[in-house]
Amino acid sequence: MGVTLRRRWRTVAFGVVLVSLLGSLPAQAAVPKWRVAALPRLELSSRLVDVAATGPDGAWAVGYQGSGYGAPVPPRPYALLRWDGTGWAERVLPDDVGTLSGVSAAGPSDVWTVGQDRQLAPYAARWNGSAWQGYRPLGQETGSTLFDVAAEDGRAVFVGGNAHALVVEWDGQQFTRVTVPGADAWWGTLYGVATAPGGATFAVGSWHVGDAAYPEPMILQRTGSTWRVATLPTVPSARLLGVWARSATDAWAVGTVDYDSAPKPLILHWDGTTWQRVPAPVSAGSLGAVAGDRAGNLWVSGANPVPPYVEYPGSLFLRYTGGRWSVTYGPKVNNADPYLSALTNIPGTSAFWGVGAVWDPAAESTALIERVG
Prior knowledge:
Keywords: Signal. The protein is mainly beta. The protein has strands at residues 35-38, 47-55, 58-64, 78-83, 88-90, 97-107, 110-117, 122-127, 132-135, 145-152, 155-161, 165-170, 175-178, 188-195, 201-207, 216-223, 226-229, 238-247, 250-257, 264-270, 275-277, 286-292, 298-303, 316-321, 324-329, 339-345, 352-360, 364-372. Helices cover 0% and strands 50% of the residues. Strands 1-28-27-26 form a four-stranded antiparallel β-sheet, with no helix packed on it. Residues 2-27 have low confidence and may be disordered.
C-alpha cells in the first residue's frame, strides 16, 4: 500500500529494455491479465489512490474528486467507495473531510482511512462494521500530513510528514506520536506503511541526507515495540512510494530513481537481516505500488517511459513468482495508459484489486478500478 502524490502522474522516462534476474529461463505460463473492473461515477477530475480488501465480498477504495484546475470545490471532495461483492458504491463519512489518501483493513469490522479535513488538519476514520467514526490524530495541527495507514488487529500505524518523517500509533484507545531515533536528522516524508502478521511494520519514503537537493530512500521499521531507521543501499535521487510485507523476514519496497528527469525502477527486498536492491525486469519507468499474496505471488504497478514515444500496449505491471520476474501490460482506456496508485490482494484468493486514474481530455483524470484474477 502507499500514498499517491499528484506529481506521480507526470512521471516520464527514456527507453525500455527487458532483462531477467536469472538469465535464460524456460518458457513461462501466460501471465494473468489485468482488466478494467469499474469506472466509478464521481465528480470530474477524480482519482483513487488506495484500496484495501477484506475478502471476495468486501473492499474499500479512497481518493478525491472534483479537483480540476479552476473548478469549484464540490460539496464532497473526497472519494470513498465500497465493494459488496456485486458492485462499487460511494459512501459518506460523518465529518467535513477534504481528501483521503490511504485505507487499510484488518478485517470487515476494522478498517481505517486517512486524509485531511477541510481545515487541512490530519484526519482519520475507523469503520467498525456498521458505521464510520472520525478522529483528529494530531488535534487541529495543520503543519503535518498523514499519507497512509496500516491496520492491525484493533491497532493501527499512521505515517506522513511534518518536515520530518512522522509516525503515529493507535493502541485501540488513543493516538501517540512516535519518536524514532535518527528519523529527524534530515527533512523527509513517509508515503507508505505495511504491517506483517505478528506486528512487524515497515514505513517507506525519502529524506534529504546532508540537506542534498535530491532525496534518498528512507525506511523506518518496527520490531516488537521498537522503531529504528533501516540501513539501506545508497541510491541518490530516489524515493520509495509503496511497501508490502509477507512476514517479518520478507518485505518489498518500490519506487523510482531520478523520478523527475529520466525515471528508473527501484526495488528493495528485506530478508529479515538486510535490505538489498533487486534488479528490475525493466530498465526505465517508475514504480508506485506493490502487493502480494500468501502463495508467493507479487505484483508491482508503475508507469511506462514516454519518450521516445514508443507505443506501449498499456499500463506497466511487473509480476514476481517462483523466483523470477515477468512483465505485462494492463488495458488502455481513452487510448491512454491508466496509472494504478495502489494494489491489494483479495484475501483467500489469488486475485488483486488495483485503483488509480486515467487521463480524460474532458475531465483531466477519471478514477478507475482494475482487477486481475
